[in-house]
Amino acid sequence: FGCSFLALLAGARAPVSAVRRWRVLGEAGPLCAYRTLDAGDPGRLCFRYTQPDFRCTSTSCRQVSSPGGQLTANILSNGSVLIQWTVAHEAPHDSTAPPKSLTPGQTGGFRLSCWWNGSYTQFECAGVHLGSSCRDYLLNELHTNVPYRLCVRPYALELTEACVEFSLAPGGMQDIVIAMTTVGGAICVMLVIICLLVAYITENIMNPTVPHPHRSHLHTHL
């Protein structure tokens, strides 16, 4: 939902430094704090509800996973992509131990990076800084028939990033639009050809302008 109300609420309950310093690896929670990183501007703090119970059904969704299985892209039929990830802890999890805290100046949470390939070059999407409680993120307004590469990496842990590659196929409505455009173009070409034929027939057969020479000769003798 909207960023402004929850950002004000978070700012009222916690100092700015506390909002910006997320824990390195907290437990997954119902709310995910994130910032969009675009052109050097960290953007405002936003929140969204996580979807831990989401399951990809074969009828409306297909999955692409990273080689290690830590990152999964759920490609939905409406053109959106819900990415989900897990983090392999370096040490056994101890429920009694407090969560690891950040050192001064250290950044916590996760970094989402994105690239897509154009006809001649590769473009980078706007990155996203996700809080430590985030385990999924929804991407909208992606290009169809374009190869994408998404990577997620914890900021403060020495772990390699997990990446997936996929492309979006045109949706059903887009297929209909493409088919209608193709048929419409073919009809226009046929109409142009018919108009040219009618003009040719009218000009050269129905209304001849040049009389035949032998007819003029016979008319003179008569």
Automatic annotation (TrEMBL):
The chain crosses the membrane at residues 176-201. InterPro entries: Fndc10. The keyword Signal applies. Keywords: Membrane, Signal, Transmembrane, Transmembrane helix. The keyword ATP-binding does not apply. Residues 1-18 form the signal peptide. This is Fibronectin type III domain containing 10.
